């Protein structure tokens, strides 16, 4: 398929929301690259905050005010792929430290979803996410991009897949990197994160009313990408 537009689409926002392991991170980054749009990996903000909270010995249950304060002053940066983690699309920095790998552990994932449930944290990070809007256009990946952060986005996609398929993908990813993994444990971790993300009162994970849902359970990344590009073409082309 020929990509028809890039620089001719100023200020367009495309949101891609969905549960962990649905493939939205990969799709968002490929799409942003293809369009020449800025990419917002909003999950990385919550992951860095989780790491910062953990290092400060703060508990999401007992220290929500202190964690919201951390969120207000979080020194986070995005950069090129790092030497330590060339397979990760872009590096993520906490102050002067490259935390691209540290924020991707299962422990960091669990901590991120706990700090993300704190309402004051979401308020603290809202403007920071909106600051990613750029003249080039934006692809925003997360849980509430289409519902809360960019409610006026031109294209909203909700990318999902069965929890079993998502656990299996994560399992293969870890094994492929030579990391030991236990499939049933991954499945229950994902179920716990899904429950936290969908059942929290502040900006829960759900499709926006005007989002198009794509179920990638039986699809390859290439098939999803094809469908997403087709959709973007129809909406914006
Ligand atoms: O997308 P990613 O898996 O990196 O996100 C980590 C965690 O951050 C998620 O499990 C979710 O709890 C939280 N998150 C969120 N809202 C977003 C992005 C991520 O609550 N927009």
Structure description:
The structure is a single chain. Helices cover 46% and strands 14% of the residues. With 237 residues, it is an alpha/beta fold. The chain has a single domain (10-229), classed as 3-Layer(aba) Sandwich (Rossmann fold). A hairpin with a 2-residue loop joins strand 4 and strand 5 (97-98). Helix 2 (42-55) crosses helix 4, helix 3 packs parallel to helix 5 (119-130) and helix 4 (106-115) packs parallel to helix 8. Bound molecules: cytidine-5'-monophosphate (C5P). Cytidine-5'-monophosphate binds at residues 20, 42-43, 46-47, 109, 112-113, 116, 142-144, 193, 197. Residues 20, 42-43, 46-47, 109, 112-113, 116, 142-144, 193, 197 line the site of cytidine-5'-monophosphate (C5P).
Spell out the blueprint of helices and strands.
Layout: E1 13-17, H1 24-35, E2 38-41, H2 42-55, H3 64-72, E3 76-79, E4 91-94, E5 97-98, H4 106-115, H5 119-130, E6 138-142, H6 145-149, E7 155-160, H7 163-176, H8 183-199, E8 212-215, H9 221-236
Parallel strand pairs: 1-6, 1-7, 2-6, 7-8
Antiparallel strand pairs: 3-4, 4-5
This protein binds cytidine-5'-monophosphate (C5P).
Residues 20, 42-43, 46-47, 109, 112-113, 116, 142-144, 193, 197 line the site of cytidine-5'-monophosphate (C5P).
Compact overview of the structure:
The chain has helices at 24-35, 42-55, 64-72, 106-115, 119-130, 145-149, 163-176, 183-199, 221-236; strands spanning 13-17, 38-41, 76-79, 91-94, 97-98, 138-142, 155-160, 212-215.
């Amino acid at each position: 398929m020929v990509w028809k537009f890039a620089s001719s689409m100023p200020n367009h926002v495309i949101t891609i929301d969905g549960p962990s392991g649905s493939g939205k991170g990969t799709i968002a980054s490929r799409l942003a690259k293809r369009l020449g749009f800025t990419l917002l990996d909003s999950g990385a903000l919550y992951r860095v905050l989780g790491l910062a909270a953990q290092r400060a010995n703060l508990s999401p249950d007992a220290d929500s005010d202190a964690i919201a304060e951390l969120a207000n002053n979080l020194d986070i940066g995005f950069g090129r792929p790092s030497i330590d983690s060339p397979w990760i699309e872009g590096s993520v920095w906490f102050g002067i430290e490259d935390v691209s790998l540290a924020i991707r552990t299962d422990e960091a994932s669990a901590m991120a979803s706990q700090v993300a449930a704190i309402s004051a944290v979401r308020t603290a990070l809202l403007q920071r996410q909106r600051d990613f809007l750029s003249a080039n256009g934006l692809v925003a990946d997360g849980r509430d991009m289409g519902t809360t952060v960019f409610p006026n986005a031109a294209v909203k996609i909700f990318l999902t897949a069965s929890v079993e398929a998502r656990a299996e993908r994560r399992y293969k990813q870890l094994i492929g990197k030579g990391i030991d993994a236990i499939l049933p444990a991954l499945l229950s971790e994902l179920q716990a994160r899904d429950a936290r993300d969908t059942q929290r009162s502040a900006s829960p994970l759900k499709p926006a009313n005007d989002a198009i849902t794509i179920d990638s359970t039986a699809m390859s990344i290439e098939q999803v990408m094809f469908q997403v590009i087709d959709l973007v073409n129809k909406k914006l082309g």
